[in-house]
Amino acid sequence: QVQLVESGGGLVQAGGSLRLSCAASGRTFSSYDMGWFRQAPGKEREVVAVISWSGGSTSYADFAKGRFTISRDNTKNTWSLQMNSLEPEDTAVYYCAARYKWNQRYDYWGQGTQVTVSS
């Protein structure tokens, strides 16, 4: 059974940092792009950052550029999102997800981890 499990969420003051991690089990994800998404209360889920299956390409939402960094370690089947200079607007449930490298749709999702940024 494939599972993605996020960790690292929590409560932080504005300007602080958090590092989210996603641990995968049940298969190898070395051929999968990995994404981080978030959903705030009353809002639609949005993409935060994506890293390619090889790690050679990354993309970020405009709000994440310069503040967030996505990375992966295929040897450990783990992926991370380093978030710096957090703002109250970053408060949301953050999800990791995986899609096969030639697909558009994400095949696997984690259960989410709450990030709350206080002002």
What is the ordering of alpha helices and beta strands? EEEEEEEEEEE
Oligomer: single chain
Work out the radius of gyration. 13 Å
How far apart are the termini? 40 Å
Could you estimate the helical fraction of the residues in percent? under 10%
**Uncertain ranges:** none
Kindly describe this structure:
With 119 residues, this protein is mainly β. β9 and β10 form a beta hairpin. The strands form two sheets. Strands 2, 4, 5, 6, 9, 10 and 11 form a seven-stranded mixed beta sheet that branches.
Highlighted features:
single chain; 119 residues; mainly beta; 7-stranded mixed beta sheet
Write the layout of secondary structure elements.
Blueprint: E1 3-7, E2 10-13, E3 18-25, E4 32-39, E5 46-51, E6 58-60, E7 68-73, E8 78-83, E9 92-100, E10 108-109, E11 113-118
Entry summary:
It contains no helices and 11 strands. The strands form 2 sheets. Strands 2, 4, 5, 6, 9, 10 and 11 form a 7-stranded mixed beta sheet that branches. Strands 1-3-8-7 form a 4-stranded antiparallel beta sheet, with no helix packed on it.
